[in-house]
Amino acid sequence: MTPVDRKLSRAVLGFDLEAELQTAREELRAGPSRMARTLVKEGPLRVTLVGLGPGGTIRPHQADAPITIHVLEGEILLETGSEIHRRSKGSLVALDRGVRHAVSAPNGGFFLLTLTGQSKSEAGP
């Protein structure tokens, strides 16, 4: 994983998302099926760039706070209960706290995950 060598918290933070995506693409090419790079960590706010390589998955889990998922590149499948939501670049999804969900990307994808509170995410079986 790319080491954190920048501020995660300050009054004003700015990001070049294309540069962040390029770094994330390079990290995924190095071998892992998924990566996560925290961009903002300020009080209860967390913004994380998440990348899934082709076939990458995030197992079922839930967050103890509301979250949003903003697809930046590719396509993801968001599973909530018995429903599968296919989301592509430009899509934004909001989940209430406690909604159990899983994410997969058959052909790979990148998204921004925003969490608005302390999370106690637990991996499912």
What does this protein structure show overall?
The protein is 10% helix and 48% strand. By secondary structure, it is mainly beta. It has a domain at 34-116: Jelly Rolls (Sandwich), CATH 2.60.120. The longest helix has 13 residues, at 17-29. The two termini are 25 Å apart. Mean pLDDT is 89; it is low at 119-125.
Keywords, separated by commas or semicolons:
mainly beta; 48% strand; single chain; eight-stranded antiparallel β-sheet; 125 residues; disordered C terminus
Question: Would you summarize the structure shown here?
Answer:
With 125 residues, this protein is mainly β. It is built from one helix and eight strands, in the order αββββββββ.
Reconstruct the topology from this structure:
Elements: H1 17-29, E1 34-42, E2 45-52, E3 56-61, E4 67-80, E5 83-88, E6 92-95, E7 101-105, E8 109-116
Antiparallel strand pairs: 1-2, 2-8, 3-7, 4-5, 4-6, 4-7, 4-8
Termini Cα gap: 25 Å
Q: How many DSSP E strands?
A: 8
Radius of gyration (CA) equals 14 Å
Oligomer: single chain
What's the helix-strand series?
Answer: HEEEEEEEE
Mean pLDDT figure: 89
CATH architectural designation of one domain? Sandwich
In percent terms, what proportion of residues is strand? Answer: over 45%
CATH class of one domain: Mainly Beta
What is the CATH topology descriptor of one domain? Jelly Rolls
